[in-house]
Amino acid sequence: MVQLLSTEQMAEFANSGCLFFDGLIDNQTNKEFLNDIGYTDIENVDNMQKYFQNIKASSSIPRIPAGTSLKNAYPHKSPLQKIFKNEVVAGAINSLVGSEAVVDHQFLHLTFPTKYFKKTNQRQMSQVNHQDSTIDPRITFDIQLFYFPTDVTKEMGGTRYHPGTHLRIVNEMGIAKYQNIKGQKNIVCKAGTIGIFHNGLWHGAGVNFSDEIRYMFKVRLQPTEKQELLWDPEKKYKPLPNKALYWTDENQEKTVNDILMQSYPWQEADTNRLDKINTIKFWRMLTGHKNLDIDYWLTRIENELY
Amino acid sequence: MPKRQKVLVLYLKFPSLEAEVISWATFDGTGQKLHMTGDSDEPPYPTGLDALLDGWRLFQSSQAIPEHPGEEFRTSYLKHEFFFEKIEEGDF
């Protein structure tokens, strides 16, 4: 039985563009995955390119043509099939991209420690901020599942990401000039952690200043059905009524609308309002409530009488 | 003495130098420090004005461009961009 996301988790995803499940995958499966890719103790890894080539040549991760159904993508009882059949992972995937999602691509990211760069006289630099693939103005969205089979410490330079950037339409590395963005986060997590990103989320890999290689396996998934109320098949969700604006004496209990309207420290004063408008439009799509509004942002500008 | 340029790029909360810094990048032509993506969580100055007060010279800022008709609600790159420089002399 899969565990679909809650409305609050969906709102968190709609607003921030990401969800995390810390230490979700058990240690046995993490070990099996590492064995499958030909994990080697760092003492026996001489060369970055060779290690990566060996993994590509000998790993049991299957070659998956783009567009393959996720259901048929991974061998029976393989660690990757176990991960995708995990009730929380399967529930999150079904909630966001449906039960008939297809694999766009997968990639094993390895980030090497400083000694390998010194040995080859290469400059060790972090990966610049970017949005994956290319300009993507769709309403439909893909998700990228990040799996961390080992612990990721702060020194290991875990994936840097910028919550709330996923609905900004940019062109891949066109955001590379933003070296640092207020509110930026770096993934620090236990082995077995799963992260799920909206395909538009700005991100980049950090520098690995530890003595260990950092591993991250990423799979991009694409929906084949409309992404409306997939997490709520019984259609229980009802939008909240309008509230009095700029009225501070209201019930302080945090609502789904509060989650949706959360601001981030990197947002400009003017464009932050557009970010909110775009989140409301995104939530309209996800819930199927075409006239839904929060804080009157859309009703105000849709009241066109001429 | 040879001269080298240091460049500081600040992205501000609104298009005035008194506004809060929300994103930043530094490129050091003296070679003293290698800056890179994700190397600091706190901005070098709280506002653009504080950079001026510390001797940085503004040499370019983004223009105000009206939103394209039909695309008024489309969000994209950070808007309020300010380029500063310092020229340093030394034995590089």
Structure description:
The complex is a heterodimer of chains A (306) and B (92). Chain A has 306 residues and is of the alpha+beta class. Chain A contains nine helices and ten strands. Chain A has one domain: q2cbj1_9rhob like domain (Jelly Rolls, Sandwich). Chain A has helices at 7-16, 27-36, 48-58, 79-85, 87-97, 114-119, 256-260, 271-287, 297-302, and strands at 18-21, 68-69, 102-111, 143-148, 160-161, 180-181, 185-186, 193-198, 203-204, 214-222. In chain A, the strands form two sheets. A six-stranded antiparallel sheet of chain A has the order 1-8-4-10-3-2. The termini of chain A are far apart. The mean pLDDT of chain A is 95. Chain B is elongated. In chain B, strand 1 and strand 2 form a beta hairpin. Chain B has one domain (3-65, 73-89). Chain B is built from one helix and four strands. The mean pLDDT of chain B is 97. By secondary structure, chain B is mainly beta. At the A-B interface, strand 6 and helix 8 of A face strand 1 and strand 2 of B. Strand 6 (180-181) of chain A pairs antiparallel with strand 2 of chain B.
Question: Roughly how many Å apart are the termini of chain A?
Answer: 52 Å
Shape of chain B: elongated
- Total count of domains of chain A: 1
CATH superfamily of chain A: q2cbj1_9rhob like domain
Rounded to the nearest angstrom, the radius of gyration of chain A is 21 Å
Work out the oligomeric state of the chains in this entry: heterodimer
Query: What proportion of the residues of chain B form beta strands (DSSP E)?
Result: 25-35%
Tell me the radius of gyration of chain B.
15 Å
CATH architecture type of chain A: Sandwich
- How much helix, percentage-wise, in residues of chain A? 25-40%
User: Strand order of the main beta sheet of chain B, please?
Assistant: 2-1-4-3
End-to-end Cα distance of chain B: 9 Å
Strand order of the main beta sheet of chain A, please? 1-8-4-10-3-2
What is the helical fraction of chain B, as a range of percent? Answer: under 10%
| Strand-pairing-aware structural class of chain A | alpha+beta
Query: How many helices of chain A?
Result: 9
Give me the strand/helix succession of chain B.
EEHEE
